[in-house]
Amino acid sequence: GDSVTQMEGPVTLSEEAFLTINCTYTATGYPSLFWYVQYPGEGLQLLLKATKADDKGSNKGFEATYRKETTSFHLEKGSVQVSDSAVYFCALREETSGSRLTFGEGTQLTVNP
Amino acid sequence: EPEVTQTPSHQVTQMGQEVILRCVPISNHLYFYWYRQILGQKVEFLVSFYNNEISEKSEIFDDQFSVERPDGSNFTLKIRSTKLEDSAMYFCASSVQGARNTEAFFGQGTRLTVV
């Protein structure tokens, strides 16, 4: 079945550091890929998405590129801020699985001033 | 900005009791979902609902669970006889379409604690 694996967390960085959160997936078809973010006390919000190979999703300084050859969708940001502290979820949605999202474990990011 | 709203934010219930979790999806959305996250584990799909019927459900969604859209705005998840292992954060979501590239909008979640 489909699955998503994220790097083990939590991640703690200093402000302005470079961020990478790794995400790899297993899918039987050709999924769309998503990064969701959950700020403290809030629900899941879509951060970015990519729907086909080599697409780059970007939003709020975050980027991720859909790499079909390595089945990966790593999240990056060049300079993190304290306000980026949150839990980040990688997810996929398959054509063949209907409308469900399959999530990774989530990675807790803490950015210190 | 339109949003998905869930009530209550936190519910404590005794084992064996019935609970109803409520959600108001975004008004022009047609697909509705429930997910749950047990503490420290992944967010898991429970069920999707379209055109007044279940379109897909996971193996977690057994006979103890049911969903309903009782009117034009609410979408509910009922757990008939709660177990300790039902303790989790429950997220409602909605989307305009069910296509693979469509964004799902999530509510803030209801934390269910079964004691």
Keywords:
heterodimer; A: mainly beta; 6-stranded mixed β-sheet; 50% strand; globular; B: 115 residues; mainly beta; 7-stranded mixed β-sheet; 4-stranded antiparallel β-sheet
- Would you tell me the structural class of the helices and strands of chain A? mainly beta
Largest interface summary: A-B, 27 and 30 residues
Q: How many strands in all of chain B?
A: 11
Number of strands of chain A: 12
Number of discrete helical segments of chain B: 0
How big is the Rg of chain B? 13 Å
* Number of contiguous helices of chain A: 0
Mean pLDDT of chain B: 93
Largest sheet of chain B: 7 strands, mixed
Order of helices and strands of chain B: EEEEEEEEEEE
Percent of residues in beta strands of chain B:
over 45%
CA(first)-CA(last) distance of chain A? 41 Å
Query: Strand share of the residues of chain A?
Result: over 45%
Task: Enumerate the spans of chain B where pLDDT stays under 50 for 5 or more consecutive residues.
Answer: none
How far apart, in Å, are the first and last alpha carbons of chain B? 37 Å
Shape of chain B: globular
Helicity of chain B, in percent?
Answer: under 10%
Shape type of chain A: globular
Indicate the multimeric state: heterodimer
Mean pLDDT score of chain A: 92
Structure, described:
- Chain A has 113 residues and is mainly beta.
- Helix content of chain A is 0%, strand content 50%.
- In chain A, strands 2, 5, 6, 10, 11 and 12 form a 6-stranded mixed sheet that branches. Chain A has a 4-stranded antiparallel sheet with strand order 3-9-8-7, with no helix packed on it.
- Chain A is globular, with a radius of gyration of 14 Å.
- The N and C termini of chain A lie far apart (41 Å).
- The model of chain A has no long low-confidence stretch (mean pLDDT 92).
- By secondary structure, chain B is an all-beta fold.
- In chain B, 0% of the residues lie in helices and 50% in strands.
- Chain B has no helices and 11 strands.
- In chain B, the strands form 2 sheets. In chain B, strands 2, 4, 5, 6, 9, 10 and 11 form a 7-stranded mixed sheet that branches.
- In chain B, a hairpin with a 2-residue loop joins strand 5 and strand 6.
- The relative contact order of chain B is 0.34.
- Classes of the chains: A mainly beta (113), B mainly beta (115).
